[in-house]
Automatic annotation (TrEMBL):
Taxonomic superkingdom: Eukaryota
Coiled-coil ranges (or none): none
Name of the top EC class for this enzyme: transferase
U-box domain mapped to chain residues: 11-85
One Pfam family this sequence matches: ARM_PUB
EC number: 2.3.2.27
UniProt catalytic activity: S-ubiquitinyl-[E2 ubiquitin-conjugating enzyme]-L-cysteine + [acceptor protein]-L-lysine = [E2 ubiquitin-conjugating enzyme]-L-cysteine + N(6)-ubiquitinyl-[acceptor protein]-L-lysine
Organism: Riccia fluitans
Name used for this protein in its record: RING-type E3 ubiquitin transferase
Keywords: Transferase, Ubl conjugation pathway
An annotated Gene Ontology molecular function: ubiquitin protein ligase activity
Length: 423
């Protein structure tokens, strides 16, 4: 805890401070060397592969962390006594999950014992911090939870009903929603990505929630599908399921729910690694959804992902035609050159080059690019320290646009236009 300005007159006892972070300890634990540290600080030290005591540099016989309850109570009492000076009481920390406890829960899930209750217990546990999430992930919790995703006997998969969940087992919906939410919580750990396995029943179950679940369930389903799609073997089978791509494109339009957009972008990016999936995405209306999202992108990461997907889609004829047919696409791509990150600029330039080079309507696209100011922006881009790929595509684009630009009254003249070949 960094002492705020209003507490500068308060003297914090030195033995209440963590030797690593130099902040007031919230969860003091003691190493085998007898030195005490804040749990979060020493765990980070050990996770980085260090096997010594930070203060004494003594080699550790073991990495066990013993809670120092006496010191914690003293710190809490000190906080209470200095409450009038603005010091807040430190809450009593919860004991981290033990591997044995998590393994016992997973065994109950495998055996079908109190499944919903056990899922809720596991969900509560992993909500308490990164340490517990890592513990659950290391124990194989994600795959066990995925294996629980089986459709009920009374689940109506294909019937279009006014109530999208009519005829479906309500208890199953609650259990599966909690299971998906627990998977997402543990998915903050990247170690399991690309290693998940899901059978036809599990995939059908996830896709049902992606199409018909609540917005939270749709997001959770998209996150799980993205993890499955990271493994190359699963990409094709995922999009074979009816409605998957359409549902992901639908999430892209949830502009008031950023988590939905983010989950959709990540999943679509993983799926579009193959040409077959790119065509499916185009057919589902991904191009207009992505183009219309660009002006509303809230973060650089989301913008770059959207442009990366568009670049992948521009590698197929169907994607290029969809981009050239959208009235906003070319002006928006031109506008993004030098206006966002270097990565976003590169994606925008490559997409423009692909459409101008290979689109059936290439002439119309080039004229639209010039009218949007592409010539000037590309010339400015060449004067920056952009990547070799970006520079080469920019030069090629300028050559394509040179004849059109020369017809405009504000053209820089033949001498300036001829200098493009020097790059």
């Amino acid at each position: 805890m960094v002492v705020p300005r209003k507490l500068l007159n308060v003297t914090v006892p030195s033995y209440f401070m963590c030797p690593i972070s130099l902040d007031l300890m919230r969860d003091p634990v003691t190493l085998c060397t007898g030195m005490t540290y804040d749990r979060s600080s020493i765990e980070k030290w050990l996770d980085e592969g260090n096997l010594t005591c930070p203060a004494t540099m003594q080699l550790l016989d073991n990495t066990s962390l013993i809670p120092n309850h006496t010191l914690r109570r003293l710190i809490q009492e000190w906080c209470v006594s200095n409450r009038s000076n603005g010091v807040e009481r430190i809450p009593t920390p919860k004991v981290p999950a033990q591997p044995e406890e998590v393994r016992a829960m997973l065994e109950d899930l495998r055996s079908g014992i109190n499944v919903h209750h056990t899922v809720l217990r596991l969900r509560t546990l992993v909500r308490e911090g990164d340490k517990n999430r890592r513990c659950a992930a290391d124990a194989g919790a994600v795959q066990v939870l995925v294996n629980l995703l089986n459709p009920p006997k009374r689940c109506h998969w294909d019937e279009e009903e006014e109530d999208e969940t009519a005829g479906t087992d309500r208890e199953w919906i609650e259990i599966t929603e909690d299971t998906l939410a627990t998977i997402v919580l543990i998915s903050n750990n990247e170690a399991f990505r690309g290693s998940l396995v899901a059978g036809p029943k599990q995939l059908a179950c996830i896709c049902w929630f992606l199409k018909r679940g609540s917005i939270e369930s749709k997001v959770a389903a998209a996150v799980v599908l993205e993890s499955l799609a990271t493994g190359s073997d699963a990409r094709s089978s995922l999009t074979e399921l009816e409605g998957v791509t359409d549902s992901l494109v639908g999430l892209l339009r949830e502009k008031y729910y950023p988590k939905a957009v983010f989950a959709s972008l990540k999943c679509l990016l993983a799926l579009c690694a193959t040409r077959k999936n790119r065509i499916r995405a185009v057919e589902a209306g991904a191009v207009p959804a992505l183009v219309e999202f660009l002006p509303e992108a809230e973060t650089r990461g989301m913008l770059e992902r959207a442009l990366k997907i568009l670049e992948l889609l521009s590698s197929c004829a169907e994607g290029r035609e969809a981009i050239s047919d959208h009235a906003l696409a070319i002006p928006m791509l031109v506008k993004l050159i030098l206006r966002a990150s270097e990565t976003s600029t590169e994606h925008a330039v490559v997409i423009l080059w692909m459409v101008c080079e290979y689109s059936v309507n290439a002439g119309t696209v080039r004229d639209a690019a010039v009218q949007a100011g592409a010539f000037t922006r590309l010339l400015l881009l060449l004067q920056t320290e952009c990547s070799k790929r970006t520079k080469q595509k920019a030069v090629d684009l300028l050559k394509h646009l040179r004849d059109i630009w020369s017809q405009y009254p504000c053209s820089p003249g033949k001498k300036a236009l001829s200098q493009i070949g020097q790059f």
